[in-house]
Amino acid sequence: MSGTTTAAALRRRAAGAGANRWVVLVVLCTSLLLVAVDATVLHVAVPAVTEDLRPGGMELLWIVDSYPLVCASLLILFGTLGDRVGRRRVLLLGYALFGVASGIAALADNAQVLIAARVLLGVGGAMIMPATLSILRQVFPDRRERALAIGVWSAVAAVGAAVGPLLGGFLLEHFWWGSVFLINIPLMLVSLPVGRILLPESKGEGSGPWDVVGALMAAAGLFAVVLGVKRLGGASAADGGVWTALTLVAGAALLSVFVRRQRRRAHPLVDLRMFARPAFSTSVGCIVLAMLALVGLELIAAQYLQLVLGLSPLETGLRLLPLTFAAMAAGLAGARLLRRFGPRRMVCFGFCLTAVAVLLLTGMGGQDNRTLLLSGFVLLGFGLETTLFGAYESMLSEAPPEQAGGAAAIGETSYQLGAGIGIALLGSVMNAVYAPGLTGVPGVPASASTAAGHSLGEAHQVAAQLGGPAGAALLDAARHAFVHGLHVTLLVSAGLLLLGAAMALWLPRAMHCETATAGETPADVPAEASTDVPADGLSEASGKAVDVPAPRAAADSHVPV
């Protein structure tokens, strides 16, 4: 292809030529793997933590939720801070904080210390996550190569999410629960010096002062919204519905003020003009819808495998592995699919394929159907990762390079918000269908039916307490009601996915790539144009990535590659 872009070639050399940028990708993927594993590794350790530390109900909730809650609320703060002070600097500080917090968590002797350590882990994760994507955006300025890098990055994320529970289960069989945190420390001790040596420093234009007030306002608003959404998934009018509503209103108000503040400032924390670009705003919406439709469903599916089919936690994790492998395959094939079909068709196809998988899973019943589950989970993993890959790649490519940290933070925040809303929405749908199915079970007191209507897990406990024919009847009714609720939830999820497919039609039809000026070839570029850039893309004096001015190009064109 003689249309290889001169501008992209020069920028590749500026960001790091040859193998160096791929080494950078390995370092960034290691960072992501640690954060992804830590997000799920604690799930299997909760029973052991409960037995050892004896936390109260609220303390246990904060042990589990403080990490994702704090991480989600601080993504924009640290993403934009990295654009100002240096993305590598923020990333390395996140490494150090993550390692220290892991040590504190592993040695915690009470619930309060463990909660504090999980909060610090959330702060470290918020530093690491947007920095990895924004550095990736910097070192892969060519969109074709960046698509491949994002595919590897997303495949690693899928691996981390799946490895977490399995690794946690293995460690708990041989060591105490603190070992699930100790594994982070040696990896961070290696990542710090390696990252300091290999990762290029980069930052945005840095014009004007950093909006500290706006950053804190965004963090507080997101914290309130995410907390309210999490509480909404399990709150009722009797146990905190009013406080949940107040938390959501306060968070929405803070975010509204934040948006108005950014529009008025000459140098905003987040350039909201990015949302005026249809590809950027549509990509963010697709990320939210994809997570909204599927995260709550994933939790419900895990309950189905354990409480309806009677599988152990390890067997449940193994049953879900095909979903992870399919997601990895989609991530690695994503760059080729994007070049062949373009963002619009790729994301739309991903949504439709996922909807087909969800509808296929409505065939799940009270009996184990391995073939159905395998087929459904494979299609689900491939479709979901295809959707998220296309959406993330389009979002990062539409964002200006100087706003890479802010754009990455917006994408990760959208992911977290979609996941939280999905748990609340699909959980509410599930409960609305499940609870009425337990009324009027013969031989079961009304109080027992009410208690069992809270969840299938509680139904198992109540049935065990009742015993005899009444307990068996209650458990049978609970399983049937759960399966019926699961089917309804799957249909709602399919509807949300089809809505996402319609939204994806606003994405660009083809990859938006720079092309050289008409008639210009790489030979037209003076030889001295490239001699000022070292082969590793770093200035010898400062170790910083060098911005090379690209030759003036013709108007950007949509090039199907």
UniProtKB/TrEMBL annotation:
Transmembrane domains' residue ranges: 22-48, 60-78, 90-108, 114-136, 148-168, 174-198, 210-229, 241-259, 280-305, 317-335, 347-366, 372-392, 488-507
Region Disordered, annotated ranges: 521-561
Record flagged with keyword Membrane: yes
Subcellular location: Cell membrane
Gene3D superfamilies to which the protein is assigned, alphabetical: MFS general substrate transporter like domains (1.20.1250.20), Multidrug resistance protein D (1.20.1720.10)
Database matches in Pfam families: MFS_1
Protein name as annotated: MFS transporter
Source species taxonomy: Bacteria, Bacillati, Actinomycetota, Actinomycetes, Kitasatosporales
